[in-house]
Every structure is written in C-alpha cells, then in structure tokens.
User: Which sequence fits this backbone?
C-alpha cells in the first residue's frame, strides 16, 4: 500500500483532493469550450423567430418554443414523402445494420481468436491492413459493384457496405483473446459445439466490446448520408440523415432556415448522445483490452 | 441447429464475404481503373500510366492546392489531435470517477456530431454577415469593422476546418487511451518511485506511455486514418465542391469532384490509389515509431 508520503500514483483516485485542483482548472475551461457548440445547437433549436433574428445575436434562448420543430415537420410533409417514412427507413437500416455488424464481426473475431484453421494469421493481418482503409478511395468501384449486383434502390445497399468494420473486428478479437481457454475447453468436453460456446459463453463475456462496437456502428450508420446519395434514387427509400442534410443545405444558408437547421441537427445528434451516455461505462471497460498487442 | 455448426466457415463466411466484396475487390478494381480512361458510360479503355503522369505533371490544382492542403491539414490535425487526446485522457485519469464520467461524455460528444449536425451549427457560428456569432463578437469588441466572409474566404477556410476537426477529434482513439491510462498496474508506479522517479513528468515518460503502448498505437493509427478521411468538412462548411478558390480542397474532395461531378472515373481512381498509398505509407511510419518490435 502507498504510504502517506507517497505522492506519485494519483491515477484513478477514489475521492476529491486538493492536489487535483490543477487538473480541474485545466479541464473546466477546456470542456466548456468543447461543449459550447453543442449548447449552442440546443439553444438555437428552441429559439423563436425574434431571437433568431436578434442583433446582437444571443447565445442562450430566453423564450423557448417548438416553432422550429413545427416548421420542420410542416416543410417535411409538404415534400411528399412523410417524415415518418425517413425515420422508419433510418431506424430500420440502423437497427438491422448494427445487429448484423455486431454478429458478423464477433463471429469472425471468435474464429480468428479461438478456432484452429490455416491462414488465420494472414486474415488478421489483412484486417489490420484494412484498418487504414479509406472508404472514399474505393467509392467508385464500390458503386460499380453495387450497381452491377442490382442492389441500387434496395435497403441492402444501405446496410451491406456499412457493416464491414475492420476496427470493430480488431477490437472484438483482442477482447476474445483474453477469454480464458479453460472455460471453452471444459464446455467442449461437455459436448458443446463451437456455435453453442460462442453464444452461451463468449458472447456474454464480451458484452463490453459489443457495446463499443454497437456505439461505433450506430454512429456510422445513423449519420451516414453517402449510401443515400450514391446508391438510392428512389426518394422514399432514403434515410433521415440524407433528408436532414439536403434540408439544411438548402435552408441553412439564410437566417430564417437556421432555427430549423438547428432543430434538424438536434434530432440527428440526440440519439447518438443518449446511446453513448447509456453505454459509456461499458465502453471504457472494453477499451482497456483493445490495444494492438 | 447450432449443434452442427462447428466448422470455422460458419464464423468466417459472413464477415469475409462482405469484406471481399466491399473492400478487397474495390481496392483491386480501383488499381485496375487507375490505368484506364473511364467515364462511367462506355467500357473503360486501357491507357497505361497516362493518368499517373497527368496527375503529376498536368493537374495543377492537385499539385498546387489539394496535395499541400491535405498534408497541411493532416500534419496539424493528426498530431495535435493525438497529443490532445493523450493529455486529456491522462488528466481525466487523475480525477475521481464520478467527475471523469461527466468530463468524458462532454469531451467525446463533439465526435458524435458527425455530418449533418456539425455542418449546420458551424455555418451559423461562422456566418459571413453581422448576424454570424463570431462576426458579431468581433464587431462588438471593435476588432473588425466589416463582417468577414469566413467560410467563403480562402484566407480563413482552412483554419476553420482545422479548428472544427480538432474540436471533434476526441473519438475512439481518445477512449482507448483513457482506458489505457486507467488500466496501468498501480504497483508499477510505486516501484518506480522506490527506484528514484521524482515527479509526474518522469512518471509519464517512464511508466505511463510505455505501459500503454498498444493504446497509443491504436490512437495514432486512428488519428492518421480519420484525418485523411476527413474530406467532407470543407465542402460542408463552404457549401460547394470545389471549395472557394480550392482553399479547403482535400484529396477526398478531389476524388469526388472528378469521379462524381465530372465523371472522369479512371482519373479519380488514380487519385484514390495515390491516397491509399499515402495513408498506408504514413501508417507504416506510425507503426515503425510506436509499434512494438516484432
């Protein structure tokens, strides 16, 4: 145990102490700076016309209203495709996408970590290489593949290209590496198949890694605009992110559209934030196991 | 059913089929297309290394603006964002958990505002008339007399892109480093103090960084990849591709410009291959510097 004079290890302290003051003096201004634009969006979204136009502009909202949200929904319903349609598309694509992403990456990670077969080292190397992969660089061939395979204007075009996540594979594999082999061996002796071991033993143990991948995948798929732009021509199959972007890029330039743009931004941002706040404890737990080792 | 699914193929096929279709084949196809003339309507015609020669000798926009912009952007945002992630992760580890959670959520939340949310809010803040928040502040303080066209002016666009990118750079790399710092064996520090380490600076260089090398490497690779992928930002802020006078044009925008606006897909593929090579090369250097020796 540390003696009373031992001042060095203040990592992960259990309670507040005067010596932590400098850290707070650094963190508080910095965090304030980081959160200002987000506070701004929250305030802006609820500002009535008069405050949006106010000069000099005010940061905080004084008389919050839902006008911007109402106007947004009015504009949406005038466009022919109902708002709910975009929302359902987005939810459908995101939920299916995140679920599939989690399962296919965890499956592969389990095989690369615990199963015996030839070439698994090579596969992992290729995956690590693909970490550096820049999607935009191969957008053209990807587009051609999707066009040739007849996936244009299907939900699969939203989902399939998005769920190959080398980073996720990497994180989960590192995590499964740390599951003790003894449990797996003893389950095998009891006659369990690999698939049963995966679902009954490994999956519960790697829950934190799953949470991380869930957040990452959600963030990527929910916010993605590119699949709607590139692979979808049918307006009614596009996603909320696409609609919000086209709306804000038309309306966002003038002051009148600002409140609406802020409302749209808020609608897109809040689900990410809520999910992260709920799962962050688990995520930080995961990351400790995730390094490139 | 699950009883008989014992073969590795059950686990491998879903991920690797998609990996093959959406990553490996496109990379190979991009390399092939980069040697062709292809306008997306007629079949590609093979033209050898003409595209590469053109890129180096004739594409003045690429050489004058795009390449230097990308390198400038990446060399500032990458390392600074990386250092910032480490410093913040380390500082967060020095305070109790309750407070840490709150700060971690605040610091991570900007990277949750990808795409739509980000663009519209920054456009309002940097709006070019006196209604813009920054302009109004500066006018108020008497720093400027006329509102500045921040997002349309080549003098400011790049700086704003860098600021916004740094603001949202506390992503996965930051979380990994935070967990890395927290996960270091406490007894290492005590042993180090017995061995004569005296202050926190020494603590960081002799214990903290070496003990979290894997997370540092992961964070670095993520920093490299995300900064080179960050192409949307200049176009989203200024509202046009190409960005005003190419001030914020990055390689990614150049690819979009040629591939999806001018339909010169062979040429765009050439630029893509060059981008892949740059990212691969820089990641290799990162591995060399931070990676463990094999």
Assistant:
């Amino acid at each position: 145990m540390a003696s009373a004079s031992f001042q060095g290890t203040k990592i992960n302290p259990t309670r507040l102490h005067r010596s932590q003051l400098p850290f707070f003096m650094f963190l508080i201004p910095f965090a304030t700076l980081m959160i200002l634009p987000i506070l701004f969006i929250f305030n802006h979204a609820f500002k009535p016309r008069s405050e949006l136009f106010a000069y000099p502009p005010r940061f905080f909202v004084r008389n919050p209203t839902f006008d911007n949200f109402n106007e947004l929904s009015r504009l949406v319903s005038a466009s022919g495709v109902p708002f709910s349609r975009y929302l359902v598309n987005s939810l459908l694509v995101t939920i299916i996408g995140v679920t599939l992403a989690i399962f296919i990456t965890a499956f592969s990670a389990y095989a690369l970590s615990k199963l015996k077969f030839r070439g698994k080292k090579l596969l992992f190397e290729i995956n690590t290489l693909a970490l550096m992969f820049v999607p935009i660089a191969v957008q053209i061939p990807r587009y051609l593949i999707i066009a040739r395979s007849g996936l244009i204007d299907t939900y699969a075009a939203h989902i399939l290209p998005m769920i190959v996540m080398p980073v996720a594979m990497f994180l989960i594999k590192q995590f499964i590496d740390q599951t003790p082999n003894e449990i797996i061996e003893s389950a095998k002796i009891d006659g369990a198949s690999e698939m049963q071991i995966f679902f009954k033993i490994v999956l519960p143990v790697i829950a934190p890694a799953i949470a991380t991948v869930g957040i990452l995948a959600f963030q990527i798929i929910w916010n993605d605009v590119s699949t709607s732009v590139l692979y979808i021509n049918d307006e009614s199959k596009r996603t909320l992110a696409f609609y919000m972007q086209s709306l804000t890029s038309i309306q966002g330039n003038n002051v009148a559209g600002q409140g609406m743009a802020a409302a749209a931004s808020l609608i897109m941002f809040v689900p990410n934030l809520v999910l992260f706040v709920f799962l962050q404890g688990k995520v930080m737990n995961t990351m400790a196991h995730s390094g490139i080792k | 059913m699950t009883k008989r699914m014992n073969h590795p193929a059950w686990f491998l096929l879903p991920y690797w089929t998609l990996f093959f279709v959406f990553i490996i084949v496109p990379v190979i196809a991009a390399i092939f297309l980069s040697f062709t003339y292809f306008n997306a309507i007629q079949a590609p015609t093979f033209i050898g290394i003409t595209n590469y020669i053109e890129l180096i000798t004739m594409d003045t926009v690429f050489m004058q603006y795009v390449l230097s912009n990308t390198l400038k952007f990446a060399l500032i945002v990458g390392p600074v964002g990386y250092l910032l992630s480490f410093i913040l992760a380390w500082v967060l580890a020095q305070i109790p958990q309750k407070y840490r959670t709150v700060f971690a959520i605040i610091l991570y939340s900007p990277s949750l505002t990808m795409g739509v949310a980000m663009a519209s809010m920054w456009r309002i803040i940097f709006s070019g008339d006196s209604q813009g928040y920054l302009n109004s502040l500066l006018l108020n303080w008497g720093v400027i007399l006329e509102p500045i066209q921040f997002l349309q002016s080549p003098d400011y666009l790049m700086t704003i892109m860098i600021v916004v990118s740094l603001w949202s750079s506390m992503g996965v790399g930051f979380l990994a480093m935070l967990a890395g710092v927290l996960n270091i064996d406490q007894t290492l520090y005590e042993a180090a103090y017995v061995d004569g380490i005296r202050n926190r600076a020494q603590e960081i260089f002799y214990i903290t960084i070496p003990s979290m090398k894997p997370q540092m490497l992961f964070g670095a690779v993520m920093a490299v990849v995300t900064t080179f992928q960050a192409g949307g930002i200049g176009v989203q802020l200024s509202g046009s591709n190409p960005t005003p006078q190419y001030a914020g044009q990055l390689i990614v925008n150049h690819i979009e410009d040629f591939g999806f606006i001018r339909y010169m897909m062979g040429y765009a593929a050439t630029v893509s291959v060059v981008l892949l090579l740059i990212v691969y090369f820089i990641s290799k250097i990162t591995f060399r510097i931070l990676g463990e020796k094999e």
Remarks:
- Residues 1-7 of chain A have pLDDT under 50 and may be disordered.
- The two ends of chain A are 30 Å apart (CA to CA).
